[in-house]
Amino acid sequence: MKITFLGGGNMATALIGGMLERGFAAADLQVVELGEAARGALAQRFGVRAVESFDDAALACDVLVLAVKPQQMKAALAPIAGRLCGQLVISIAAGLRLADLGRWLGAPGAPHARLVRCMPNTPALIGAGVTGLYADPSVDAAGRETAGRILGAVGSTVWADDEAQMDAVTAISGSGPAYVFHFIEALESAGRSLGFDEAGARRLAIDTVLGAGRLAAGSEDAPAVLRQKVTSKGGTTEAALASLAAAGWHDELVAAVQAAEARGRELGAELGKD
Ligand SMILES: NC(=O)c1ccc[n+]([C@@H]2O[C@H](COP(=O)([O-])OP(=O)(O)OC[C@H]3O[C@@H](n4cnc5c(N)ncnc54)[C@H](OP(=O)(O)O)[C@@H]3O)[C@@H](O)[C@H]2O)c1
């Protein structure tokens, strides 16, 4: 299966590295990338073909992965508009909707339909991401499987049933690492206030999040059950959780994610308005 990436930046580099580790062949991968240094780095590190603009070989692919910034997408697709022959197109661009991508990719009056839209998150850069995916109904099971295998090269995958859910994916796991970093910052501040130096407080905070995440991922118990298991009656954890509950922490976080989802919907409309 021949796969061409449009854009050879951070995320394409992570995907290509993960795909090669999982058995995709370098000879089957190509990258269309404007930057000369980035092209050289991709060719040298992975042995993939990297070109400045679409040529016949780059267009003669089975799958096209769109990996330029959302604001760059319309201009980047202009040279190939109406020139695809039914390829599966997988977009990883945050916020861009299938209808807008299809219009930019297709010929006038004939939008490209065979599209999958994905939202990875930044831990994908170290192979520990989670990606939400949504496929146009015209994409068959084999196309969905291909998209799942490509994005699965940088972490786990979750399919959405409805394109509107992609704004929720953006709000939960796309922006999610920032919420976790913020939590780590707060735990680190608490460590400093209780007498630890920066390095010690940071180590305690980061490794707690890392260990709890791994424990939750590997456990058959729901997170609520794991929480109850470390909360003894009258103990220290109970005191902390009571303080968080009094501050409305849980509901505040839910409201924050809902605010992110609403902003995602607004941005999607802005990005695709022309
Ligand atoms: N990084 C993440 O963690 C993350 C997470 C979720 C989703 N995403 C999505 O992934 C996509 C890529 O993000 P990224 O972080 O990898 O961005 P990036 O590092 O900026 O990579 C994009 C690359 O595409 C190149 N490019 C721009 N226009 C082009 C064109 N017309 N033809 C060929 N190449 C072109 C850029 O070159 P120049 O630098 O010269 O412009 C750049 O090297 C974005 O749409 C983003 O929304 C990223």
Automatic annotation (TrEMBL):
Residues 163-267 form the Pyrroline-5-carboxylate reductase dimerisation domain. It is found in: Cytoplasm. Its EC number is 1.5.1.2. Pfam families: F420_oxidored, P5CR_dimer. Residues 2-95 form the Pyrroline-5-carboxylate reductase catalytic N-terminal domain. Keywords: Amino-acid biosynthesis, Cytoplasm, NADP, Oxidoreductase, Proline biosynthesis. Its main location: cytoplasm. GO terms for molecular function: pyrroline-5-carboxylate reductase activity. Pathway: Amino-acid biosynthesis; L-proline biosynthesis; L-proline from L-glutamate 5-semialdehyde: step 1/1. GO terms for biological process: L-proline biosynthetic process. It catalyses: L-proline + NAD(+) = (S)-1-pyrroline-5-carboxylate + NADH + 2 H(+); L-proline + NADP(+) = (S)-1-pyrroline-5-carboxylate + NADPH + 2 H(+). NADP(+) binds at residues 6-11, 67-70. One of its GO terms (cellular component) is cytoplasm. InterPro entries: 6-PGluconate_DH-like_C_sf (IPR008927), NAD(P)-bd_dom_sf (IPR036291), P5C_Rdtase_cat_N (IPR028939), P5CR_dimer (IPR029036), Pyrroline-COOH_reductase (IPR000304). The keyword tRNA-binding does not apply. HAMAP family: P5C_reductase. Catalyzes the reduction of 1-pyrroline-5-carboxylate (PCA) to L-proline. Belongs to the pyrroline-5-carboxylate reductase family. This is Pyrroline-5-carboxylate reductase. It comes from Thauera aminoaromatica S2. The lineage of its organism: Bacteria, Pseudomonadati, Pseudomonadota, Betaproteobacteria, Rhodocyclales.
